[in-house]
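lol so apparently i was supposed to do this last week
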Amino acid sequence: MTVRPPIAMLAELTHRCPLSCPYCSNPLELARQEQEIDTETWKSVFRQAADLGVLQLHLSGGEPASRRDLVELVQAARDAGLYTNLITSGIGLTERRLKELDEAGLDHVQLSLQGTDAEMADRIGGYRGGFDRKMQVAGWIGAIGFPLTLNAVLHRKNLHQLPRAIEMAVEMGARRIEVATVQFHGWALKNRDTLMPTREQAREADAIVKAARARLKGTLVIDYVPADYHSDYPKRCMGGWGTTGLNVNPEGRVLPCHAAESIPHLVFDNVKDVDLHKIWYEGAAFQAYRGTDWMQEPCKSCDRKTVDFGGCRCQAMAILGDPDATDPVCIKSPHHGALQAQTEAHASAPDGDLVYRKAPGRSIPESVG
Ligand code: SF4
Ligand code: FES
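anyway here it is w/ FE2/S2 (inorganic) cluster bound
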């Protein structure tokens, strides 16, 4: 296949994070601060990304505001000609820091929403006072005039708040809301019994999004990731492996997707050793599932194989222990029936205690966790 340059790069600046969300999709083994790549290395990576053809840079984490050099990094990315988007919980951002980010040229902010009121948001994020702080940050973002997207992760506990989340996006003047049903990668797998939405909830969310899209046309764009465990066909994960985007993790390893390190046989190059251009075009991890040659049946002879590229490799790994298998969400997978049964079992399991993600050095306040 012809390999085109990537459009977007996700820079996971750090795994440090003040929140402890139980659906965190970061790997089980988090990078410590002393393992993070330094400012100059990130700057070089941004220049290499721009040379490679990347247009959009998403700065994420963990919480990217935990990096002291965030303003300097944004400035460097803008100097390299990249469109910069900060993906943040808002915690760690002051009005002054946001103004500095504005002066450095930050183009866009994506603010996460754990719930639409303090009780829900603070319980899910495992951070008392987080919601009030976030609302204050949202006010500053609006006053400065950053284009804003709200990010809401939906699951069994908060799906009933979807209509209010959409209203809040409109009230805040956001141009877009990303509504993603929880994906079970990394830490989130520990909370499947408590977070798995029911089939009814998934259907209701589909209907709410459909109605809101019609009602808010021209006001708010709604990007929606439905509950794929309840679907018949898998999602086209990452737009197709090695086709549109790449991730650089806090230690400098370059990944074809956020969860790729869960696939044990893959070997990842590091920006400290290898040029980004070479990694994208020749890196073993990028070649592993690019295109369709790697596929087994039923994908191999399926007419949708260039539509969804066999679904999500990391999901096949997490559920079947085989990253080469057809995503078991697919109705043609021999494991589809078993997955549906498992999903129903998770969705009807009694609520357990949330298992919080604890970043190194963080403890969960008792009244929240
Ligand atoms: Fe997609 Fe493979 Fe299912 Fe066909 S068999 S729809 S290619 S996942
Ligand atoms: Fe890795 Fe889907 S998250 S391929």
